[in-house]
Specification:
about 375 residues, alpha/beta, Rossmann fold, 2 domains, 6-stranded parallel β-sheet, 5-stranded mixed β-sheet, 15 strands, about 40% helix
Length: about 375
């Protein structure tokens, strides 16, 4: 059985966290009692009361229910200025020792340890801790995640494999992620065919799932640099689609849709909300189709009317979170459309879906070996 598994990817936003979550849950479901986690090299910090850890390490501690220790689960964080400081005085840092110490303890305590990589395989090279170097250091075999496609997928895969080959790290196989469902069979055939030529196993082909890309209102607020002006307590409402205020009456069967974000200027908000209220009453809806409202304006004088409770009846009736931004409507659409949405502790439905996808589309036996045992 492979007891140390390193999840790497050909780039950012490919699916390392999703794959790692699904893999850890699948291992436990297959009867492996003690599954450890480590993010050896992190870049984005979450500051807690008594420690600083990579945000992914915090996520896993919450979702996989283990006590978080920075020295074990997030031993190295390359925050702002870290690489320059390292180059100024390399002897002042013991990054390699930190990673090695964490892996030694985790491997002693667990049956399997899953390491989550950072960025593409070369990330961390500046401090001698690239993904490939870390995998070699901790004695882990690699599961490489690549985004769905054929030519571009193989090209990026070839570059990434070279890094691990240079470090004499064994690649267990490849998971092709975010494949359009209608192209699953085609990608599986052609990528699988090329991987056979390369002597590498295809571990699974995972379909693109739109639900994993849905942001929540808090994420929207950050993207548009706004602030909540009503019902901030519902910041975790998910957003599945966007409707502009000017097109409310033109959207077919709006009463049958859910989790919509209304984007409308302050100037047109009153009209848009009245239309929604009319549709809701006519369809005898007990819930609003909205997740929230984003009010846009570059003219602060337009915002003065909002204090009138008459215009807020619909908002308060359904406890809809409302965000205000100085961006105009087009600027807000652009910011939201360019969002890269990650799994976090506020999106538990994404964790469940990630686990389900890996369980359904990835061959676990090819990753851990055929000695996976069942809990008696």
């Amino acid at each position: 059985m492979n007891t140390s598994i390193y999840v790497a990817a050909t780039g950012q936003h490919i699916g390392k966290t999703t794959t790692t979550l699904g893999l850890m849950a699948a291992l436990k479901a297959h009867g492996i009692r003690k599954v450890g986690y480590c993010k050896p090299v992190g870049q984005k910090v979450t500051s807690l009361t008594s420690l600083q850890v990579d945000k992914d390490a915090f996520l896993f501690s919450q979702m996989m229910d283990f006590k978080l220790t920075s020295a074990l689960h997030s031993p190295v964080i390359l925050g702002k200025g870290a690489t320059a400081a390292y180059l100024d005085d390399q002897k002042a840092f013991n990054y390699t020792e930190k990673v090695l110490r964490a892996s030694t303890i985790l491997q002693e305590k667990n049956d399997v340890v899953v390491y989550e990589g950072t960025g593409h395989p070369g990330v961390g090279s500046i401090v001698n801790l690239s993904n490939a170097m870390v995998a070699e250091l901790v004695g882990a075999k690699v599961v490489l995640v690549v985004e769905g496609g054929i030519g571009n997928t193989i090209d990026k895969l070839s570059l990434s494999l070279a890094k691990f080959k240079a470090q004499n790290v064994q690649v267990i196989g490849v998971i092709v992620n975010k494949v359009w469902p209608e192209k699953l069979d085609k990608i599986k055939y052609y990528v699988g065919k090329k991987l056979d030529e390369m002597g590498i196993r295809l571990l699974g082909v995972v379909p693109f799932d739109k639900s994993l890309c849905h942001p929540i209102m808090k994420t929207i607020n950050t993207a548009v640099k706004g602030h909540f002006i009503r019902h901030e307590e519902h910041f975790i409402n998910r957003v599945e689609d966007i409707i502009p205020g000017s097109l409310i009456e033109e959207i077919i069967e709006i009463e049958q849709r859910r989790n919509l974000l209304l984007i409308v200027s302050y100037k047109r908000a009153k009209e848009a909300l009245k239309k929604l209220e009319s549709i809701t009453k006519r369809a005898k809806m007990t819930e609003s189709p909205l997740s929230g409202v984003l009010l846009t304006s570059e003219n602060r004088q337009e915002k003065s009317w909002w204090g009138n409770a008459l215009y807020e009846s619909y908002i308060n009736k359904f406890n809809l979170p409302v965000i205000s931004t100085d961006l105009d409507t087009l600027g807000s659409f652009t910011k939201i459309n360019n969002l890269e949405v990650k799994i976090n502790t506020s999106t538990p439905w994404k964790v469940e879906r990630a686990i389900q996808l890996i369980k359904e589309y990835v061959d676990l036996e090819l990753i851990v070996g055929k000695t996976v045992y069942k809990v008696p």
